[in-house]
Amino acid sequence: MTTPAAVISLGKVLASTSEVHAFDVGDDAAALVDGLLDPFYALDADFCVTLFNRAAEEHFGLKRAEVLGRCIWDLFPGQVGGEFDRRFRQVLETGVADVFETASIARADSVVLFRVSRYRSGLAISFRNITPVRRTEEALRQSQARLEIATTAAEIGVWDWNLVTNEMVYSERAKAVYGFSPGLPVTFEQVRDATHPDDYPETSAQARRATDPEQRDRRPYEYRIIRPSDGQVRWLLAHGEAVFSKVGEFERAVRYVGTIQDITERKQAEEAVRASERRLVLAVEAGRMAVWEYDVATDSVQGSPELNRLLGFPPEATPTASEMRARYYPGEQERLQEIGTAALQRGDRFFEAEYRYVWPDGDVRWLMLRAEIILSVAQAPERVIGVVLDVTERKRAESRQDLLINELNHRVKNTLATVQALARQSFRDGTEGGPSQAFEVRLLALSRANDLLTRRNWTGASLREIVDQALAPYAETGTDRVVVAGPDIILPPNMSVSLALALGELCTNAAKYGALSTPTGRVSITWSVDEQGTQLKLTWTERGGPPVRPPERRGFGSRLIERLLAQDLNGEVRLAFDPEGVTCTVEAVVQGQ
Fold it and tell me: Under which EC number(s) is this enzyme classified (predicted)?
């Protein structure tokens, strides 16, 4: 393509051979003008067209014969007094060449670059359509703007290392990542000194691999820096690619360009996960637990090494799911399936169970399973992940404990029966409601409390069960003679026994003299616990029985209720003999008993 300098030089030659109104050129010069790729035309001092090449014809859509000798302002009257008029006259008057961009007067939405020079007989004018160039530049600016937005949003810095001059260009984001001063240039020495000394050898090796024409390594790499601004150690992720230039038969890297991103938070999170996994492994190993995963589609099980030990397989074995299922104790596999199905039906993906498993030597082991069911997109079981541990010794200990407690309970009952027989022989009163019968009632209450405690391995007894058991002999079906209301709570053993004896005394007294001695009498037992669950208040109320008169002296039953119960409950017991019925109020601390 002919250069602007060549066009201007040609204009000078043409101008030197022209008269005022026309360039007188030979055939060769005319052919040269027509051969120019850029539109070219010449004007005399009166702005009449003296030359008009083929490219100008194509651009304006005018034939040469139509324009030669005509004033340019007659051809384009709309430009009189405009930018072209002003610039053309200025060049003609001053002799200083002018280069400017402007909108094309012949083609809409086009931008042209004009070059105007003065010659003895007028002006030489060439221009070029630079619309594609400007569109490319605008697209590049927009692309750079989008890249800047993207890198800023992703907190990515951009760097460019000129390997020939050893100059470095860092974006402002890249400078911020490194802790360099904004607005100042970055040197190779700064980058080198900021790189962690333990990581610098590898980053240097990576740069050599990337700039080696034989390797051209573009793999991302991670390294640490020590920021000079605050001394923080930060992890960076870098992507780089070298730009190569060929000199003769050889290539060499001339630039190394890439991005950096601060990944310190990600690395810290990864380390936290690894630390958590290490702790989990230690916990699983310390607890002698096995971790396993079952794939429903492939019917395969993957487990930790401990799984083989728990199931009785050799350490080097890789048992299949079928081989594992074959050793379930009869009926246990079906029971586990029912437990898992029930969990899904109630919307729970987690379940746990204890089951029996048979080792190769015939030993029956107890295993505890905790698992999570992973569902597919179709909400069908896809995987099951869980842990299992051997609880055989615990189950055997529980069995021995149950045996011991049952034996103890049996012996306690035998002892109570012996005491009851001795009481009958000792009292020999034979009267209804005499001392012998009262003693037997108290022994019976003690025996019933013992039964309740035995059910829970003497860890406590249900308050509602204690109340129901005491009232059972007096409650009549279909009537409202006995009203019971209150939340169910577990009482410690000493409180359970004392309360059972006290309720037995109250029931016996009500049946003999109080509300339960007449068809119209009623008994109400209500209790409540405060919001903290520590204070219990229980009230026994009798109504509708014979008029009550305070006793002349306190009997054993009253003393048992007011003194023994208050002492064992670590609380307060108030027994009132109101004319309309006996009232007993118990206030006690239940937590920590």
Answer: 2.7.13.3
Tell me whether strands 364-375 and 122-129 are parallel, antiparallel or unpaired: unpaired
Find all residues with CB under 8 Å of 284, minimum gap 6, and list them.
290, 291, 304, 306, 387
Count of C-beta atoms within a 10 Å radius of residue 318: 11
Domain over 4-129 is classified CATH 3.10.290.10: no
Quick check: 325 and 301 in contact, CB under 8 A? no
User: Are β-strands 522-529 and 482-485 bridged in parallel, bridged antiparallel, or unpaired?
Assistant: parallel
CATH 3.30.450.20, applies to 287-390: yes
The number of angstroms, rounded, from the C-alpha of 502 to the middle of its chain's C-alpha atoms is 57
Structure tokens at 342: 């029930």
Q: How confident is the model at residue 10 (pLDDT cuts 50, 70, 90)?
A: very low
Class of the CATH-defined domain 461-593: alpha beta
| DSSP labels, 80-101 | TTSHHHHHHHHHHHH---EEEE
Question: What does the domain layout of the chain look like in residue ranges?
Answer: 4-129, 147-268, 287-390, 392-459, 461-593
Query: Would you say 551 and 577 are in contact if contact means Cβ atoms under 8 Å apart?
Result: yes
Distance CA 426, CA 419 (A): 10
Q: How many CB atoms lie within 10 A of CB 96?
A: 10
Express as a percent the part of the chain with pLDDT over 90. Answer: 48
The beta-strand segments (E) located in 333-481 are: 350-358, 364-375, 381-390, 461-462
Q: Which of 215, 209, 214, 270 is closest to 238 using CA atoms?
A: 209
pLDDT, one tens digit per residue, over 569-583 is 777 888 888 899 999
Superfamily in which the 147-268 domain is placed by CATH: PAS domain (3.30.450.20)
Distances from the Cα of 452 to the Cα of 150, 455, 494, 532, angstroms: 72, 5, 12, 26
| Eight-class DSSP state of 561 | I
Distance CA 531, CA 455 (A): 28
pLDDT mean over 156-164: 92
What are the φ/ψ torsions at residue 25 (nearest 5 degrees)? -115, 155
pLDDT tens for residues 330-367?
999 999 999 999 999 999 999 999 999 999 888 999 99
